Every structure is written in C-alpha cells, then in structure tokens.
Amino acid sequence: MTEAASDTEDQPIRLLLADDHRMLRESLRRAMEDNGFDVVGEAPDGAEAVRLAAELHPDVILMDVTMPVLDGVEATRQVRDRLPGTQVVILTMHADREVLVDAIRAGAAGYLVKDCSTEDVVDTVRKAAAGETALSPELAASMLGEVRDLVQREEAAGAEPIISKREEEVLQLIADGLSTTEVAAQLYISVKTVKNHLASIYQKLDTRDRTQAVLQAVRMGIVRLD
C-alpha cells in the first residue's frame, strides 16, 4: 500500500450536521467529534445544508426532516443530484414509513429516529460513508412485517414477481456488502452481466443506484439486511 493511499484511509469521515435545533447540533457535534468524525459544518435549515454541502463536500450529512426554508427530504434530493459522492443519513423524530419511503427515493443511505443511541448514529454514519445502508431497527421490523403480509397476498393471487430470481440473488449479495466483482465471482457470471442485472433492477424498482435499490427491496420484502 502506498503512503498516499494509507494517508487517505486514515482521514476521518467529514460530516455535516443539518438540524434547526441548535442545542441538538451542538450535542451531536460533541458526540461525533468524540468518536473521531470531522464535523466540517452545521446548517439550521435544508437550503443552507445544500449550500454548505456544495461548498464543503462532506462525506456524509446527518439530516433532519422538519426544517425551515427547505425540508430534509427535498434537501437530500438536491444534495444527491448535485453531489452523488455525498451520502445522507436522516435523523428525525418521525418514525413514519411514508417519510422513510420519500427519503429513500430522495437518495438517503440511512434513516434513524432521534431516540436511538449515539452508538447507532456513529455506526450508521460509518456505514453510509462506506457505501452501505442502514435503517432504524424499529422501522425495519415494522416495515418487513407489513411487507411479508403483502407478499403472501400477492403469492396467493398468483402475482408475477417484480424482479427475477437471479436479480434477487444479485441484490441480496449487494445488500450483504459485496462489490460488483465479488458478486460476479460468487454467482459465476461476468461483471458485465452483474451490471446488466443491476440496471434492470434499478428500472423495475424505480431507483437510481444500489443504495436506493437495496432499501426499496428491503421495504418490499425482497431482500434482508442482516
């Protein structure tokens, strides 16, 4: 490993905080800095979060939903459109599946409710920075229970599956954290074939990238997050 590569890996995760409550931002800053994060900025509303993201290029934004000027979901959408390398983790009071789905469609890589622990926030932000996905355990369990009932009803009615069995295998391996190359090796197919499967999955699930596809598939009960 080169010295430059080692220096890059040792750099702390650059984090932007977006929440309209100053005391919460200050508390989060202390907690995240204590855990080794580089908090590069704070935004009191969604519009400022978008502006600071474009200026500071953080690795991850910890984003509230209900904020003045621009809400967190729309701010997430704008950030992800302009800065695809910046991940967004939603941290909100709303344990609401509709808000969750909107956030996923906007490009959020994680979703936590504010009664979670600091350890949950730290773990989720690290996962997001690494390109992984995470949901609040309470939301994931609730959603999966409802989706299982829906899937059972569809199966009883003879509904055609949304994605093929092979596409499901590819997506599950992606959800398990495997790279495109690793998925190809695991399934004994070419990298190009894996990419073709992913393109088909994105179209069928109405998503833009693997993070959205995995979270949408979790919501639909197609794959699981261990």
Descriptive account of the structure:
The structure is a single chain. The chain is α/β, with parallel strands linked by helices. It has two domains: 3-136, Rossmann fold (3-Layer(aba) Sandwich); 160-219, Orthogonal Bundle (Arc Repressor Mutant, subunit A), CATH 1.10.10. The protein contains eleven helices and six strands. It has helices at residues 3-10, 22-34, 46-56, 72-82, 97-106, 118-129, 137-156, 165-175, 180-187, 191-205, 210-219; strands spanning 14-18, 38-43, 60-63, 87-92, 110-113, 134-135. The protein has a six-stranded parallel β-sheet with strand order 2-1-3-4-5-6, sandwiched between helices. Strand 5 (110-113), helix 6 and strand 6 (134-135) form a beta-alpha-beta unit. Helix 8 crosses helix 11 (210-219) and helix 9 (180-187) crosses helix 10. The longest helix has 20 residues, at 137-156. The protein is globular and about 50 Å long. The chain starts with a helix and ends in a 7-residue tail after the last helix.
